[in-house]
Amino acid sequence: MDKVIKRESRDTEVREDVAKKWQPASLLPEFTKKAGWAYRWIRVSLLNEPDNMNVSSKMREGWEPVKHSEHPEVVLQADPNSNFKEGIEIGGLLLCKAPQEMMDQRQAFVNEKTRAQTEAVDQSYMNQNDPRMPKFSEGQENGRSFGKGKK
User: Which end is more exposed in the chain, N or C (fewer Cβ atoms within 10 Å of the end residue's Cβ)?
Assistant: First the structure.
């Protein structure tokens, strides 16, 4: 009785790469961002002391706590001392969200304010006439040479 065993070559065998590389866990959990919303971690406590001023100012800007039921993929142990029982809080930081359109308006406001302040500083600098603080240009040569010297 001759039994014929069919064997395939190992070259044709396909293996899935099941070996994953270890990497340290991120400090803040990953979550799925929903379109139309901006997300931010807001400080609610510092050194185990509540930071009510920071929280209230962020809430007035339009940020609202993200409920854990909105992102069940985030696995955290609940903090029994938290003021935000339904929120996603870790290490004194609370995950909050705000409408993206509102945050775009906020960013435009900050950009304009920054531009105006930079312009004011530049204008103040250019108006100075103090001989003790001469103005200079980055490309200006003042008779000194470096390196090989003048030829």
Answer: N
